[in-house]
Structures are given as C-alpha cells and as structure tokens.
Amino acid sequence: MLENLEKIRSDFPILKRKIYDHPLVYFDNAATSQKPKQVIAAIADYYENHNANVHRGVHKLSEEATEMYEGARKKVADFINGGDKRQIIFTRNATEAINLVAYTWGKANIKAGDEILLTEMEHHSNLVPWQILAREVGAKLKFIRINEKGELSDDWEKLVTPKTKLIALTHVSNVLGTINPVKEISEKIKKINSEIKILIDGAQAAPHLPVSVQTLGCDFYVFTGHKMLGPTGIGVLWAKKEVQESMPPFLGGGDMILEVDLEKSTYNYFPWKFEAGTPNVAGAIGLGAACDYLTKIGMKRVREHEEELTIYALEQLKRVKNLKIYGPEKIEHRSGVISFNI
User: Fold this and answer.
1) What predicted TM-score, i.e. pTM, was given to this entire model?
2) 168 - beta bridge partners?
C-alpha cells in the first residue's frame, strides 16, 4: 500500500513544493483538492491541440472538441452510475447546480404554503437557495435536527406532511463528517409520497465514496469537480430524465436553443437546454480525466484508505486531554472530516 501511495503522490506536481523549507502537507481537500498531472495534461492537450467551440462548428477542431466534451459527460455519468449521459448537466459548481434546481423545478412546482425539508447540517449552498425561493413564493422551510452523535434524529419522518414538496440533504457533512443514510431516507420518503422530490448534495461524497445515483432513489444529485481532483469552474447536476423534461431553462442564449425568431425561440433538448452560452469545455474534459484517475484507483480503495486514516486520527485525538470530538462514533457513519473542541 505504501508503494502505491508513493506512486500516487508522484502524480501531484504541487507536492514537490516546499513551504517554509518543509515538504508541503495539504489538509484542505474539503475546500478544494490538488490536481494530478493526468488532469493537468488533459486540459493542456485540449487547449494545445483541439481548442474550438462545441456543437456549433462543422470543422475538424469543433468536431474533436464536441466529441471530447460529450465524452467527458459519459465519463461523469459512468463514475456515479448515472445511466444515460444526458442526465448529466454541466454547471460551474455544486452551488450553481442547486440554484439551477431551485430556479427551474423549484419555481415551477413550489407554491405558497408548500414545505421544503432540509437538515441542520447543510452547507449554506444547500440552504441559501431554498431560503431565497421560500421567501419569494411564500413556502416554509423545515429542518431535521441533529442528535448528540452528530447524526440525523430518528423521528425525522414526523416532519413530512402532505405539503412537503422537496427534501434536500447532504450526503456527507462538510463539518461533522457524518455520512447520511441517503438511500434509506429516499426509500422512506418515496413510500410516504412518491411525488416528493429528493436532492442530495454530494460535494463531499463523490470524491470519497463509491456513488451509485441510480440506487440512491434521488431525483437530483449534485457535486463539484474541484473537490475530486478536477479543475475549478466545473460542477455537475444529475437529474432524472422525466424531471429534466418538465423543467424550464435556467439561462437563455447560446447552446440552449434550437431555433430563434424575433418573437419566440425553441429550446434545445436536455441537458443542453440548461447549458447556455459557451460551456467550460476544458473544465469538463479535465473532470472527465479526474473521473478516469479515481476510477483507476478504485473508489472502494479510496474509502478504505480514508477509513484507516480516520480511525488513526480519532485514536490519537482521544489521547489529548480536554478535547471533545464531534460527529458519529462508528467509522462507517463518518468521513475523514473531524471537528473537535479543546
């Protein structure tokens, strides 16, 4: 395993740097991860050899760029077991992906008096868009509490009512490290009311766990490239076909149209109707390369290694006097994020 780790470390050029005469030790992956040379090379190759706009040109470079861009969409779909690649919408980041859902599906379906169910452990990217929507349409926000173990309270089902239209929750907490049982929650929600839509924020899960959105039972799954070895400025919204078809466009212009007249326009098919303007082609290609890199390592192995490190870190932290650790006790219920007070 140590030999493999050294091989992996050698793939990251930035780790050759020294900070204050010491080898770089980087612990800020929850904010953004470093990039392996394979991702950097994929982006450079696009700009050096294939740079062109996608979907619009009939020349060779445009055909190549389009093939690479749509190939990246397929890689991302396969990485999360997302089925049809058209269920992948490229955004700038997970935050924009959540906003896209709020401003399209949300505004079309959530009305005054309706309820949106969130949790107390949400990142503000999965909180503020719903606050804005609730304020604009007159909906109500309700929150699943967190228990002393840093996990969602067992009685959350009591918060679901006939007025509940959406539940949005994080897959993995960026603060407590809690891995929420999103599959079980989705199954229970759909049994209560199959019309309730489920959005899962996977920004801290996709880089660390094997993810299969088709088995999670959600309607929307969002994550971002820069936290999973990919470039900044590229994120993903996975949305079910039937849900996408019912959603109006988010932004207007560019590649989201089929035909334009002075008085009206015909929108493109999904997912392209949600990708207005010139997309981040290089970013998508870089994200596809990151998916290839992580797939080659194996997300199961990534998770096993993280568990080993987390167990070790928890054992050492518990030896510190007057230190209180927050979050789940069982390793299978937590990620590598450890919050503590001293």
Assistant:
1) 0.95
2) 199
